[in-house]
Amino acid sequence: MISKVYTAALMGIDAYKVEVETHAEGNVPFFTIVGLPDNAVKESRERVVSAIKNSGYKFVYQKRITINLAPADIKKEGSSYDLPIAVGIMTTQEMIEPGKLNDYIILGELALDGSIRPVHGSLSIAIAAEKMGYKGIILPEENAREASMGSPELDVIPAAHLTDVVNFLNGQLQIDPFKTDIHELFREGQKSKFDFADVKGQEHVKRALEVAAAGGHNIIMVGPPGSGKTMLAKRFATILPPLSLEEAIQTTKIHSISGLLKNNHGLVATRPFRSPHHTISDAALVGGGKYPKPGEVSLSHHGVLFLDELPEFKKNVLEVMRQPMEDGYVTISRASMSLTYPANFLLAAAMNPCPCGYFGDPTRSCTCPPPQIQRYLAKVSGPLLDRIDIHIEVPAVKFKELSSDRKGEPSAKIRERVEQARNVQQKRFESETDLFSNADMQAAEIRKFCKIDEVGQELLKTAINKLGLSARAYDRILKVSRTIADLAKEESILPEHISEAIQYRSLDRDIWS
Ligand SMILES: Nc1ncnc2c1ncn2[C@@H]1O[C@H](COP(=O)(O)OP(=O)(O)O)[C@@H](O)[C@H]1O
Ligand SMILES: [Mg+2]
Ligand SMILES: [Zn+2]
Questions:
Q1: With 0-12 CB in 10 A as exposed, 13-18 as middle and 19+ as buried, what is 475?
Q2: Which end of the chain is more exposed for a tag (fewer CB within 10 A), N or C?
Q3: Half-sphere exposure of residue 224, counting CA atoms within 13 Å on the CB side?
Q4: Within 10 Å of residue 396's Cβ, how many Cβ atoms?
C-alpha cells in the first residue's frame, strides 16, 4: 500500500511543498527513508519508531517500508519530518484513515514518547499552505500562534501528542483551529519599553540620530565609556517610522525560521534591535552555517543592527557585511543551491575614541601612545565606514545634567518629524523605483536632487580643504544635507543644512593625528 502525506521545507524565508510517500509491501522487515541527508534519516527513523510504539500502537516491522521525500532537489533539513513520516507509516498500516490527508500540511518533531516538539519556520510554512489552497496545517502546539498570524483562512490545528494527530485524522477527536486576532496582537506589541525621554542632555546626539532616522542614514557614535552610547542606540528604533503589518510579518518570518519566537509573543511588532557581541562569527552575523540560518543582519531586517565596540570586530566579519549593506539582502551559496535572506537594516555603531577610551575627554587623560590610536582608528576605516553617513561624538554627560529632573523630548514627538521627512522623500522618489530614503541615493540621484547654490559650494570646498575631508565625504554630506533640509521642510538645501552635515564627518578629519 502507498500513502501520501504533505509537509513543507524552507528555502530562504519561503516554504515549499514536500510529499512524503510511504510504500509498504512484502514481508521482509526493512525500513528506509530516501530524500533526507544521512544523519537526519537515521535519527528520524529511530524517533518515529519509538514514538509510534510508545504511544501504544503496534509498529508492524514485518514489511518493507520505503519512504520517499519528494521532490529530491529541495534540500530537507531539520526534524520537522518526523510527524508526517509517522503519519505516513501508520496510514499504510491502517491505523490512520487516509481521508483527510489531502487537506493538511503536517509537520512536527517527535519525542521518543510520542509528544510533539516545536519546529522552526512555521509562519512561512502556514503562509505557503494557505497559498497552495490547503484547508489546514497540523503542527506542534507551541507553534500554533506564529502559524496563525499570516494566514487567516487556514485551519491551524495544534497537536501536543502523536495520539492527538491520529485521533484527529480518524475523526475521533475534534481540535478547534487556533485563531489569532492579528490586528489586536499588532497593536499590543507596538509599545516599546525604551524612550528618548529617559536620556538626559546629549541634545546634539539625539539630533544626529533624528537626522539618521529621517534619511535612513547609518550612524556611528564615538565617545568614552559610560557616555550613553548603548542607551542612545537602544532608543534609535523608537524614532523610526512604525512598522507596517506587512513588514512586521516579514521580519517575524525570519525570527520564526531562527526559532526565536516564544509561544506567547508571536509577532515582532516593533522594529527589531539586535546587538551582537564583537566576538560573533561571520556566519552568525550574515547567515549561513552547516544548516543555513539567517544571521543578525537578517534578524534586524526593517530595524536596527547595533555594533558596539566596532573596532573590536574581526576584520573578515566586517567585510562580509558589505553585500547586505549594499543590496539589502544576503545570498548564501552552497554546493547544491543558493539561498537568499532579506537584510535591510539601519546600522548604528559605537566606538571609543581610542583604546583606553578617554582621548579628548575633559576630565580624564588618555594614556594611549599616538600610533596605537592610529591603529585603532584604522580598524574601522575602509568599506564599512564608507557606508556610514553620520559620525557623531558623544561626550560624557555633565553631572549637572544627569542629576536634573528634566525629562527629554519623548520618542513619539521625534518620530513625528521623522515621518514628515520620510513622506517628503517618498514623494521625491515616487518615480525612482528602488529608492526609499535619501541614504539610498546614488551618484546620479545626488546630482538630481541635491543641488546646492554657490554659497553652499563654497562652504563645501572650504570644508574639504581645511578639515581634510575625503572626496568620498562629499556625496555623504550632500545626502545628509538633503535630509536636514527635508526635516526643515525646505525645498532647497541651504548653507545652514550643509554646515550641519559637515559636522557629522568627524572620523574623516585628521583630528586624532
Ligand atoms: N544622557 C544620559 N541620561 C541618562 N542616563 C545616562 C545618560 N548617559 C549615561 N547614562 C547612564 O549611564 C549608563 C551607562 O551608559 P551606556 O549607554 O552603557 O554608555 P556607553 O555605551 O557609552 O558605555 C546608562 O545605563 C545610564 O544609566
Ligand atoms: Mg556601551
Ligand atoms: Zn586613550
A1: middle
A2: C
A3: 15
A4: 18
Please report the pLDDT score of residue 511 as a whole number.
47
255-270: average pLDDT: 83
Locate the ligand 1 atom nearest the alpha carbon of residue 227 and give its number. 22
* Residue that has been written with the C-alpha cell 552568525 in this structure: 284
pLDDT digits (tens, 9 = 90+) for 153-174: 999 999 999 999 999 999 999 9
CA of 64 to the centre of ligand 2 (A): 61
**Distance of CA 392 from the midpoint of ligand 2 (Å):** 15
The protein residue whose alpha carbon is closest to atom 17 in ligand 1 is 228
Specify the DSSP element, H or E, that contains 497: helix 495-503
pLDDT at 263: 62
Any idea which residue has 515582532 for its cell? 268
Domain boundary among 391, 416, 438: 438
> Do 36 and 170 have their domain in common?
yes
Q: Which ligand approaches the C-alpha of residue 309 most closely?
A: 2
Ligand 1 centroid–CA 230 distance in Å is 7
- 213 with 168, same domain? no
Supply 417's cell numbers.
Answer: 518629524
- Cα(314)–Cα(283) distance, rounded to whole angstroms? 12
Residue 406, classified by CB atoms within 10 Å of its CB into exposed (0-12), middle (13-18) or buried (19+), is: exposed
| 382 pLDDT tier (thresholds 50, 70, 90) | confident
Distance CA 14, CA 308 (A): 31
Distance (Å, rounded) from C-alpha 270 to C-alpha 244?
9
Output the residue whose Cα is nearest ligand 1's atom 10. Answer: 228
In sequence order, what are the beta bridge partners of 288? 293
Kindly report the backbone phi and psi dihedral angles of residue 72, in degrees, each rounded to the nearest multiple of 5, phi listed first.
Answer: -70, -25
Q: Dump pLDDT digits (tens) for 58-97.
A: 887 667 889 999 998 777 888 899 999 999 999 999 999 9
- Is 187 domain-assigned? no
Instruction: Give the C-alpha separation, 450 to 438, whole Å.
Output: 10
Answer yes or no: do 460 and 433 share one domain: no
Digit-coded pLDDT (tens) for 417-474: 999 999 999 999 988 777 889 999 988 999 999 999 999 999 999 888 888 777 778 8
Q: Pick the atom of ligand 1 nearest to 232's CA.
A: 17
Structural domain harbouring 13: 2-180
Give the chain's domain count. Answer: 3
Ligand 1 mean position, distance from CA 302 (Å): 26
Tell me which residues have their CB closer than 6 angstroms to ligand 1.
Answer: 199-202, 223, 225-231, 397, 402
Pocket test for ligand 1, best of 195, 221, 231, 310 (most atoms within 8 A of CB): 231
- Measured from the CA of 228, which atom of ligand 1 is nearest? 17
d(CA 106, CA 139): 6
Q: Is residue 326 domain-shared with residue 409, that is, in the same domain?
A: yes
User: Whose Cα sits closest to atom 11 in ligand 1?
Assistant: 228
Helix (H, G, I), strand (E, B) or coil at 155: strand
What sign for the dihedral angle of Cα 464, 469, 475, 480? negative
Q: Looking at ligand 1, which atom is closest to the CA of residue 223?
A: 22
